[in-house]
Design a protein that fits this description.
With 157 residues, this protein is mainly beta.
Length: 157
């Protein structure tokens, strides 16, 4: 009987704590989408679109980089194939300590003459809402397997 009461107390505590954890994650409001088309033999057209978004933990400053893609192949009369993919990858914290943070991020353009080593990269900006503290980070693909990420604390003149 005592075990059942303890179990109910723990479940009640978890039910109250769950909304607090959910409030810690915020979706950055800067989603982008890029699309491209390809033509292949036999009059087939393929369109591929990708979009990125960021889910940010406002307490710990860790974030997830999320991507979704859709690829559609068609001929002159019908859609032949549609493929989708997506997921989120956890990234390291921007700040070492817990606080109350704000976040923004921006993607580079798709591969072009401005991206030196492949798919380009992205920039992350985070600020501490309780102190005058801003950190800017740039993450680029190295072309050698792992990304290169560097962050700089902003100075205020």
């Amino acid at each position: 009987m005592r075990l059942i009461v303890m179990g109910c107390l723990v479940l009640g505590w978890l039910a109250q704590a769950a909304p607090a954890f959910a409030d810690e994650f915020k979706l950055a409001s800067n989603q982008r989408i890029s699309c491209g088309r390809g033509f292949s033999a036999g009059k087939l057209n393929t369109a591929t679109c990708r979009s990125f978004a960021y889910l940010f933990n406002v307490r710990s400053s860790e974030y997830y980089r999320c991507a979704v893609s859709l690829s559609m192949t068609r001929d002159a009369k019908e859609i032949l194939n549609v493929q989708t993919d997506g997921g989120c990858v956890k990234k390291p914290r921007v700040f070492d300590t817990d606080s109350n943070y704000s976040f923004d991020a921006a993607e580079t353009e798709p591969p072009n003459t401005n991206s030196f080593f492949g798919t380009g990269g992205y920039a992350v900006w985070a600020s501490d809402n309780t102190a005058r503290k801003v950190r800017g980070c740039i993450i680029i693909a190295s072309g050698l397997g792992s990304d290169v990420a560097k962050c700089v604390d902003m100075t205020f003149d």
